[in-house]
Amino acid sequence: MLETILFYLFAATSVTTALLVISRVNPLMSALWLVVCLASSAGLFALLSAPFLAIIQILVYAGAVMVLFLFVIMLIDISKEALKPRVVRFAKVVAVSITGYFTVIVCIVLWRPSFLPAPLADAAYGDVKVLGKMLLTDYAVPFELASLLLLAAMIGAVVMGKKKL
Amino acid sequence: MDFGTDILIALGKVVLIVVMVLNLIPLLIWMERKGAAYIQDRRGPNRCHILGIRLGGIIHSLADAVKLVTKGSTSTSATFHPLFVIAPMISLFVACVTVAVIPFTEPLVIGDFTFQFQIADLSAGLLYVIALSSLSVYAILLAGWSSGGKFSLLGALRGSSQMISYELAMGLAIVAIFLVSGSFRLNDIVAEQGAIPWHWNAVRLPLSFILLFTAMFAETNRLPFDLPEGESELSAGYHTEYSAMRFGAFFMAEYAHLVVGSLIVTLLFFGGWHIPFLSSATLHAHASDVLRILWIIGGIKALLLGAFLVRHFVRRKGYWGDLRDYEFLVFGVPLLLVGLALAVGFFVVGPVVLPEWASRLLVFLLQLGVMLAKTLFFVWVFIWVRWTLPRFRYDQLMRLGWKVMIPLGLVNIFIAGMMTMYLER
Question: What chain A residue is nearest to B167 in terms of C-alpha separation?
């Protein structure tokens, strides 16, 4: 009961705020709505019995990545003149193709048989210990590759940031 | 227990704990002013009074609260209103919500009734604290930007970059604790440390303690890391344009952060609610003796302090020549009376053996008191450092954060890993 109410609450918040993110003219407001969107999807993770993922979502995305976004946005000029709504070329073509895409997806969802209920996860699912063990045994190679990617990005940032190497 | 009573108990706990933390704020402000005064060799706050009673300056906090609530909130023509109003709310919200996972004592078990002095016992409790305190950057950023002034924006940028940098060091320091304790639950971390002081994390992981405590100063934006509001350069930093209770919310949040930070340090490094050398089992077994000892100590203390204050009154009679002379009596006489009552009461209570529930309750309250005493000690350390050390320069701050604290944090994780691998516990 409570979980259903919470699910609809978080789901509605994340969808509305996601729409607000793309419809605001002021980039600062967009970024802030994105923070709310990320937080409510963290709530959804928590409801799916993955508390660790939920907290990491808030810690990393809301607490660190979005702060850097805001940091940059605050330093650029967002006065009234600079913030005219932008006009996209071929807007109609884009709109029609996106609408078509959504129609196809909705049709597929309605046409195919309804989803089977997912099997219940055991109590340890989403636990930090289980997650850690999985990351360092079964998924060790993708895990290491991801860290390699981050390292490459970091070196790239340093190279771009330094004027004289 | 049905759903309704559960919700009632939960609500009661929320109200109790939040009120407890919020009520500490005026006392901490008083403590800060008095501490500053003693360190700088002044008298400190001593003018405000109600009917001549000053209570050593506590009335000043009351006057502050009345002033902040009744003043008007101003804003300039350049402010961006929605965010300007929300920013102080975020700051106070984050500070209060963090308290939710903090366990103040061991659960009280009487028969089959269990009461836990903690709002939510999350399995990832400590991570929750870090995640939410990382959100307090938004309060500073939004306040500074939405004020629409240069000083505010500069303060906000400084503040946020400082907080992001020190969050990393804090996270690394905490990883070492995770390794040694093997759990994210604050209850487990405290229980794992036990009652023997050299098993506390402060002794096992001293480097971790120093790193976390330093990062805590940067996170609460207090001297020596109060660059976001460096008065000499930025007037008041991110809250330059704020007035009245909107400013008051920032002010309250700073002290609420102080309380939460001290609670975290106590829980993670100083054994939480454990009394040195007296484990909970020992306390439960000898509850009656504990009560007797506490009774005697309390009585002697009340008598001595009361006698001291009354003697002070008798010696300095007529020093001020007005009501201030009698202030010593306001505390002295009741303390003497309490001391006498305790002394007489000892002969009545002395031989009584406590029933099971009473001994449990006694241990519960005793551990709560010890926890709060340790916390207040660390609050005092925060105040002490603030009035002792000068402010860092910005480049020094960044160098300390990135080039000293983060490498030390990595070394610390290595040490903690070695400890968990090779030391049998």
Answer: A64
Is residue B221 left, alpha or beta, with left meaning phi > 0 and alpha meaning psi from -120 to 50? left
Cβ-based neighbours of A67, under 8 Å, separated by 6 or more: B137, B138, B141, B160, B164
Given a cut of 50, the residues of chain B with pLDDT beneath it are none
- Residue B356: its pLDDT value, please? 76
- Cβ contact B123–A51 (<8 Å): yes
- For residue B1, the model assigns a pLDDT of 52
Question: Which chain B residue shows the shortest CA-CA distance from A64?
Answer: B164
Contact B158, B228 (CB under 8 A): yes
The nearest alpha carbon in chain B to A49 belongs to B123
- Distance from the A52 Cα atom to the nearest Cα atom in chain B, whole angstroms: 7
Distance CA(B303)–CA(B301), nearest Å, equals: 5
DSSP, res B40 = T
Angle (CA) A164-A65-B100 rounded to 5° is 140
Can you read off the two tokens belonging to residue A76?
């650029």
Residues B227 and B162: beta-carbon distance below 8 Å: yes
Q: Enumerate the residues of chain B whose CB falls inside 8 A of the CB of residue A83.
A: none
Closest residue in B to A60 (Cα) is B131
Helix or strand or coil: residue B390? Answer: coil
pLDDT of residue A86: 67
Q: Closest approach of chain A CAs to the CA of B340, in angstroms? A: 54
pLDDT-derived band at A149 (thresholds 50, 70, 90) equals very high
Return the structure tokens found at B333. 């006489």
| Opening angle at CA A46, ends A45 and A50, nearest 5 | 75
Q: Which structure tokens are listed for B371?
A: 């926890």
Write down the H helix ranges in B220-355: 231-234, 244-269, 280-285, 287-315, 327-349
Residue found by looking up tokens 């967002």 in the block: A78
Task: Report the distance separating Cα B64 and Cα B126, nearest Å.
Answer: 34
- CA-based radius of gyration for chain A: 21
Q: How many CB pairs under 8 A join A and B?
A: 57
Could you count the other beta carbons within 10 Å of the beta carbon of residue B40? 9
Q: What are the distances in angstroms from CA B67 to CA A106, B46, B70, B72, B92?
A: 59, 17, 5, 10, 19
Question: How many angstroms away from the CA of A60 is the closest CA of chain B?
Answer: 8
* pLDDT-based confidence at residue A12 (cuts at 50, 70, 90): very high
Q: Residue A103: its pLDDT value, please?
A: 93
Measure the CA–CA gap between A59 and A42, rounded to whole angstroms. Answer: 10
pLDDT tens for each residue of B188-209: 888 888 888 888 888 888 899 9
Query: Max CA-CA distance within chain A?
Result: 61
Q: Which chain B residues contact residue A51 at CB under 8 A?
A: 122-124
| pLDDT attached to residue A33 | 92
Q: How confident is the model at residue A127 (pLDDT cuts 50, 70, 90)?
A: confident
Q: What is the pLDDT of residue B324?
A: 66
Q: What is the pLDDT of residues A63-81, one digit of tens each?
A: 888 888 888 888 776 666 6
Asked whether the beta carbons of B129 and B177 are under 8 A apart, the reply is no
